[in-house]
Write a structure and sequence with these properties.
binds 2-oxoglutaric acid; seven-stranded antiparallel beta sheet; mainly beta; Jelly Rolls; ferrous iron binding; 13 strands; broad specificity oxidative DNA demethylase activity; binds fe (ii) ion; 14% helix; single chain
Length: 200
Protein backbone atom coordinates (compact mmCIF):
# COMPACT_ATOMS: atom_id res chain seq x y z
CA UNK A 1 0.00 0.00 0.00
CA UNK A 2 1.34 3.42 -0.84
CA UNK A 3 1.38 5.72 2.11
CA UNK A 4 1.39 9.48 1.74
CA UNK A 5 2.87 12.20 3.89
CA UNK A 6 1.08 15.52 3.43
CA UNK A 7 2.50 18.20 5.69
CA UNK A 8 3.15 15.57 8.35
CA UNK A 9 -0.28 13.95 8.11
CA UNK A 10 0.18 10.23 7.49
CA UNK A 11 -2.40 9.22 4.90
CA UNK A 12 -3.14 5.53 4.33
CA UNK A 13 -5.30 5.26 1.20
CA UNK A 14 -7.58 2.23 1.16
CA UNK A 15 -6.33 0.99 4.53
CA UNK A 16 -9.70 -0.55 5.47
CA UNK A 17 -11.16 -3.12 3.11
CA UNK A 18 -14.84 -3.21 2.17
CA UNK A 19 -15.70 -5.82 4.81
CA UNK A 20 -14.21 -3.73 7.62
CA UNK A 21 -15.92 -0.60 6.30
CA UNK A 22 -19.27 -2.40 6.35
CA UNK A 23 -18.66 -3.70 9.87
CA UNK A 24 -17.83 -0.16 11.02
CA UNK A 25 -20.99 1.24 9.44
CA UNK A 26 -23.09 -1.44 11.12
CA UNK A 27 -21.58 -0.64 14.53
CA UNK A 28 -22.00 3.09 13.93
CA UNK A 29 -25.68 2.56 13.24
CA UNK A 30 -25.99 1.23 16.79
CA UNK A 31 -24.02 4.19 18.18
CA UNK A 32 -26.22 6.69 16.35
CA UNK A 33 -29.31 4.77 17.51
CA UNK A 34 -28.22 5.31 21.13
CA UNK A 35 -26.74 8.81 20.68
CA UNK A 36 -28.54 10.58 17.83
CA UNK A 37 -26.70 12.89 15.44
CA UNK A 38 -27.24 16.55 16.25
CA UNK A 39 -26.39 19.84 14.53
CA UNK A 40 -23.96 21.75 16.74
CA UNK A 41 -24.05 25.52 16.94
CA UNK A 42 -20.79 27.43 16.73
CA UNK A 43 -20.01 29.75 19.66
CA UNK A 44 -20.99 32.55 17.24
CA UNK A 45 -24.48 31.06 17.01
CA UNK A 46 -24.28 29.58 13.52
CA UNK A 47 -25.46 26.06 12.82
CA UNK A 48 -22.67 23.76 11.62
CA UNK A 49 -23.44 21.94 8.36
CA UNK A 50 -21.91 18.71 9.67
CA UNK A 51 -24.04 16.63 12.02
CA UNK A 52 -22.24 14.95 14.92
CA UNK A 53 -22.34 12.53 17.75
CA UNK A 54 -19.71 10.66 19.76
CA UNK A 55 -18.83 7.40 21.43
CA UNK A 56 -16.59 6.94 24.45
CA UNK A 57 -16.25 8.59 27.83
CA UNK A 58 -16.22 12.01 26.21
CA UNK A 59 -17.99 13.53 23.27
CA UNK A 60 -17.17 16.74 21.50
CA UNK A 61 -19.89 19.36 21.62
CA UNK A 62 -20.30 22.95 20.59
CA UNK A 63 -22.87 25.53 21.51
CA UNK A 64 -22.99 29.21 22.32
CA UNK A 65 -20.92 28.48 25.47
CA UNK A 66 -18.05 27.27 23.27
CA UNK A 67 -16.33 24.15 21.99
CA UNK A 68 -15.55 21.47 24.56
CA UNK A 69 -15.67 17.84 25.56
CA UNK A 70 -18.62 16.66 27.58
CA UNK A 71 -19.40 13.40 29.36
CA UNK A 72 -22.98 13.66 28.15
CA UNK A 73 -24.83 14.03 24.85
CA UNK A 74 -26.87 17.25 24.56
CA UNK A 75 -29.89 15.05 25.48
CA UNK A 76 -28.28 14.46 28.90
CA UNK A 77 -27.31 10.81 28.41
CA UNK A 78 -23.85 9.25 28.61
CA UNK A 79 -22.26 8.41 25.25
CA UNK A 80 -22.23 4.77 24.08
CA UNK A 81 -18.96 2.82 24.16
CA UNK A 82 -16.51 3.05 21.28
CA UNK A 83 -17.07 -0.06 19.13
CA UNK A 84 -14.23 -2.63 19.12
CA UNK A 85 -14.09 -2.36 15.30
CA UNK A 86 -12.96 1.26 15.76
CA UNK A 87 -10.57 0.46 18.62
CA UNK A 88 -8.91 -2.20 16.44
CA UNK A 89 -7.83 0.45 13.93
CA UNK A 90 -6.38 2.59 16.71
CA UNK A 91 -4.55 -0.38 18.19
CA UNK A 92 -3.08 -1.34 14.83
CA UNK A 93 -1.85 2.15 13.93
CA UNK A 94 -1.38 4.11 17.14
CA UNK A 95 -1.07 2.33 20.48
CA UNK A 96 -1.63 -0.81 22.51
CA UNK A 97 -0.90 1.19 25.63
CA UNK A 98 -3.87 3.46 25.75
CA UNK A 99 -7.21 3.55 23.99
CA UNK A 100 -8.94 6.71 22.80
CA UNK A 101 -11.62 8.05 25.11
CA UNK A 102 -13.55 9.84 22.38
CA UNK A 103 -14.62 8.80 18.93
CA UNK A 104 -16.21 11.79 17.27
CA UNK A 105 -18.60 10.85 14.48
CA UNK A 106 -19.12 13.48 11.81
CA UNK A 107 -21.80 13.03 9.17
CA UNK A 108 -21.53 15.13 6.01
CA UNK A 109 -24.75 15.26 4.04
CA UNK A 110 -25.01 16.99 0.68
CA UNK A 111 -23.37 20.41 0.86
CA UNK A 112 -21.81 19.91 4.31
CA UNK A 113 -18.29 21.11 4.97
CA UNK A 114 -15.92 21.87 7.82
CA UNK A 115 -13.80 25.01 7.95
CA UNK A 116 -10.07 25.07 8.62
CA UNK A 117 -9.37 24.45 12.29
CA UNK A 118 -6.97 22.83 14.74
CA UNK A 119 -7.95 19.94 17.01
CA UNK A 120 -6.80 21.43 20.28
CA UNK A 121 -9.37 20.67 22.96
CA UNK A 122 -7.43 17.62 24.20
CA UNK A 123 -5.10 17.72 27.22
CA UNK A 124 -2.03 16.01 25.72
CA UNK A 125 -0.97 16.66 22.12
CA UNK A 126 1.57 13.84 22.17
CA UNK A 127 -1.37 11.56 21.35
CA UNK A 128 -2.32 11.68 17.67
CA UNK A 129 -5.80 12.04 16.26
CA UNK A 130 -6.75 9.08 14.07
CA UNK A 131 -9.26 9.75 11.29
CA UNK A 132 -11.30 7.18 9.36
CA UNK A 133 -13.30 8.07 6.25
CA UNK A 134 -16.40 6.13 5.18
CA UNK A 135 -18.81 6.67 2.30
CA UNK A 136 -18.62 9.58 -0.09
CA UNK A 137 -15.35 11.22 -1.02
CA UNK A 138 -14.33 14.34 0.89
CA UNK A 139 -11.81 16.99 -0.04
CA UNK A 140 -9.41 17.42 2.88
CA UNK A 141 -7.54 20.71 3.01
CA UNK A 142 -4.34 20.90 5.02
CA UNK A 143 -2.76 24.18 6.07
CA UNK A 144 -0.08 25.06 8.57
CA UNK A 145 0.58 25.17 12.31
CA UNK A 146 -0.08 28.89 12.28
CA UNK A 147 -3.22 30.37 10.78
CA UNK A 148 -3.08 31.31 7.12
CA UNK A 149 -0.49 30.50 4.50
CA UNK A 150 -0.66 28.04 1.64
CA UNK A 151 -2.73 24.86 1.77
CA UNK A 152 -2.73 21.51 0.00
CA UNK A 153 -5.82 19.45 -0.79
CA UNK A 154 -6.39 15.73 -1.04
CA UNK A 155 -9.52 13.69 -1.77
CA UNK A 156 -10.21 11.18 1.02
CA UNK A 157 -12.09 8.06 -0.04
CA UNK A 158 -13.98 5.40 1.86
CA UNK A 159 -11.55 3.24 3.83
CA UNK A 160 -8.80 5.85 3.96
CA UNK A 161 -7.19 6.47 7.33
CA UNK A 162 -5.22 9.55 8.39
CA UNK A 163 -2.95 9.85 11.41
CA UNK A 164 -2.54 13.46 12.53
CA UNK A 165 0.30 13.35 15.02
CA UNK A 166 3.82 14.29 15.95
CA UNK A 167 4.88 17.69 14.68
CA UNK A 168 1.70 17.84 12.59
CA UNK A 169 -0.66 17.29 15.52
CA UNK A 170 -1.80 20.92 15.51
CA UNK A 171 -1.76 21.55 11.77
CA UNK A 172 -4.89 23.31 10.50
CA UNK A 173 -7.24 21.17 8.42
CA UNK A 174 -10.78 21.14 7.12
CA UNK A 175 -13.09 19.56 4.58
CA UNK A 176 -14.09 21.84 1.72
CA UNK A 177 -16.75 19.65 0.15
CA UNK A 178 -17.87 16.12 -0.48
CA UNK A 179 -18.78 14.36 -3.71
CA UNK A 180 -22.31 13.45 -2.71
CA UNK A 181 -23.32 10.04 -4.04
CA UNK A 182 -19.78 8.99 -5.02
CA UNK A 183 -19.90 5.91 -2.77
CA UNK A 184 -22.60 3.29 -2.23
CA UNK A 185 -21.39 2.35 1.27
CA UNK A 186 -24.00 4.42 3.13
CA UNK A 187 -27.66 4.05 2.27
CA UNK A 188 -28.78 7.46 1.13
CA UNK A 189 -25.26 8.78 0.55
CA UNK A 190 -23.08 11.14 2.51
CA UNK A 191 -19.77 10.86 4.25
CA UNK A 192 -18.88 9.71 7.74
CA UNK A 193 -15.62 10.70 9.34
CA UNK A 194 -14.55 9.21 12.63
CA UNK A 195 -11.83 10.84 14.70
CA UNK A 196 -10.43 8.98 17.66
CA UNK A 197 -8.89 11.15 20.33
CA UNK A 198 -7.28 10.82 23.76
CA UNK A 199 -9.01 13.60 25.64
CA UNK A 200 -7.65 13.70 29.19
O1 LIG B 1 -13.94 14.96 8.19
C1 LIG B 1 -12.72 14.96 8.25
O2 LIG B 1 -12.02 14.32 7.45
C2 LIG B 1 -12.01 15.77 9.31
C3 LIG B 1 -12.84 15.99 10.55
C4 LIG B 1 -12.15 16.87 11.53
O3 LIG B 1 -11.19 17.52 11.24
C5 LIG B 1 -12.63 16.96 12.92
O4 LIG B 1 -13.67 16.35 13.25
O5 LIG B 1 -11.99 17.62 13.72
FE1 LIG C 1 -10.21 18.29 13.00
Amino acid sequence: MTELDLRGFRILPGYLDKGVQEALVSDLRDVVGAAPLFSPMTPMGRKMSVRMTSAGRYGWISDTKGYRYSETHPNGQAWPAIPPTVLNVWRALVSDARAPDCCLINYYGEGARMGLHQDRDEADFTWPVLSISLGDEGLLRIGNLARGGSTVSHWLRSGDVVVMGGDARLVHHGVDKIRFGSSSLLNGGGRINLTCRVVD
